[in-house]
Amino acid sequence: MRVVTVWAVSTLTLLVLAGLLPDFQLQSRDGDSLTTIAFTAALGAGAFGLLSALVWPLIVRALLLVPALVLGLLVFFLNGSLLLVALWLTPDGRGTAAPQTAVLVAAVMSAVASATSTALAVRDDEAYRRRLYRLADRKRPRIARGPEPAPGTVFLQLDGVGHRVLGDAVADGLMPTVADWLATTHRVAPWRTDWSSQTGASQLGILHGSNEDVPAFRWYEKDTGRLMVSNRPASAVELQRRAVERTGDGGLLTLDGASRGNLFSGGADQLALVLSMAARRGRRNRSRSGYFAYFSDPANAVRTAGSFVTETLREIVQSTRARLRRESPRVSRGGLYPLVRAFATVIERDVVVSAVMGDMLAGRTAVYADLVAYDEVAHHSGPHGHDTDQVLRRLDRSLALIAQVAEHAPRPYRIVLLSDHGQSPGETFESAYGLTLRDLVRAGCGLPVPRRVRRTRSGSEARDAAKDALRGALHRSLDEAAEQGEEGAEAAAVAAARAPEPLVLASGNLGLISFPGVPHRMTREEIERLHPALLRTLAHHPGIGFLLVASEEHGSVVLARDGVEVPVAELTDDGPLAVFGPGAADAVRRTDGFPHVADIMVNSMYDPATGTVHAFEEQIGSHGGLGGEQAHPFLLWPRELTGPPAEIVGAEQVHRVLRGWLREAEGPQVPLEISPPGGDAEAFLPVDDQAVQDKSG
């Protein structure tokens, strides 16, 4: 049917061109009936199609030694010659064209036929896979028969998919490929994230073995005056540099590895869509090189463009439906978000999956790729529901494609599936209480806030408490200074008025409050002298679970509601952190030791009955702190590999598990000779290879 459809469209194109171009005819000089003209057009289109399919490859093969520029110019003339031959084959010489017109007609015909054929194959995974196989076969050098090479390993990260979400998707039939793996070849287990349950901390630990001093997704560093954001290229390359410096090791992928769609390189020398690469200069080091390589194939472009438009429309329909149904919780999904979602769920997915398939057909030893589609949709639609179910189905199709390509790879491959964190649902902090964390902090400091905040209960209570506390603190300071005379009293008043304004940052349901005007980490006592009501306002708020702050008396303390105060050295999983589950105390204690921990670390409340948290940013599916599914991603591995420890704690331990699996392959883990060397790699399926080592995501 595809061949018949392309033939019909090509016939119509010939008829249209014959009517538009005076030097192109499909009828005899005496004139013909419309039926005869249409028959001639069909014969001409069929003959041109056959010549293009059968003769064109032979012509190209014969001209392989011709310089690329010359061959590019010859293509048009040779294509036009094929059209003239096709017209010559029509009965009674009815088809005629001037040579220059033949070149134009042939170009239009080729473009229309190619676009029609690829458009028909947009949803056809078989056709997509065949194109990749054909390209791989053309590029792959012939190798001598010998013993079976050591298996390679493909690590596929499903960003944001928690252990519970994966289990539910398998049980509900959304992910049949994963279900089949679990029933026959693989095992799965959860692991526990660090306090900072987000991709920046998790992926840095997984790929480079250290996520020390990454307290959140975004944080302020007082010593450098820099705002670090995990998904900014400059921050990503700096985080990777620090990790490599701490470990003295390039990363998980240093031996014939490929890194695709990640924040960090893992030490790989084959890179595409790596965020830390975007901070480097030079044509070969651009993170977007993977896009150029993928879309250089027009079939890929048509397939992905159609899916991109479909996904954009799908998001508009789904967000409109949620608004009309008054679903709750709900966040704004307008503006550019439909395009952002389509980019994450279609373009990045297709480019990364294509790159991984190319890596496997190239026989690379280790590949690590991040598929971010679920995480992006879950932030705005929630981690459970129809919207994310559709994304999980499409991710499973991608996994099936990769598994099928593995059967044709030059070496056996073990596929490891994992996630970097989960997502916890819940109404945003602002939606629940009418003000943002920043508004609450400013109110607790006695700083100006919008009128709408003053009308909320939380804002009003915080302002009143701040006024009373500040009044009392001023009186105490003035009384103490009065003993030193009038100058001392004036100095105390000026010092109180010049208290540094706080910088408030959000990372999911984890908030960070820093005072940039103070060069060191402020203690509880210093904060209470400057803003007497702030800590009490935060600790007693119903939307906040606990605070972490340094203390001159106790080193550091955790503060919670009802006046609870526990030194970090004495912290256990009971007490104020009991609701957050096992390991919470150790996670908080570890973060407290980071050089760049914020002056005040704020974790939102968590309701174990509903599994909900309150994100401090506009997300109804969030991650970044403690509480619920966000802290419980999964690890799924082939049964022939040694099982991981009964309890996997932290991304750094995941790194050690993955390293052990890479060492388990029979024989030395060395690059296969079939991986294209040097310049040949640039043209290999379907990624732009051989960039300088580095990465980010």
Notes on the protein architecture:
The protein has 697 residues and is of the alpha+beta class. The protein has three domains: 136 residues, no CATH class; 296 residues, Alkaline Phosphatase, subunit A (3-Layer(aba) Sandwich); 152 residues, Gyrase A, domain 2. The chain is built from 24 helices and 21 strands. The chain has a seven-stranded mixed beta sheet. A six-stranded antiparallel beta sheet has the order 12-13-17-14-15-16. A two-stranded antiparallel ribbon has the order 1-2. A hairpin with a 4-residue loop joins strand 18 and strand 19. Helix 4 crosses helix 5, helix 9 packs parallel to helix 10 and helix 9 runs parallel beside helix 24. The two termini are 42 Å apart. It holds the Pfam family Phosphodiest. InterPro entries: Alkaline_phosphatase_core_sf, Phage_holin_4_2, Phosphodiest/P_Trfase. This is Membrane protein.
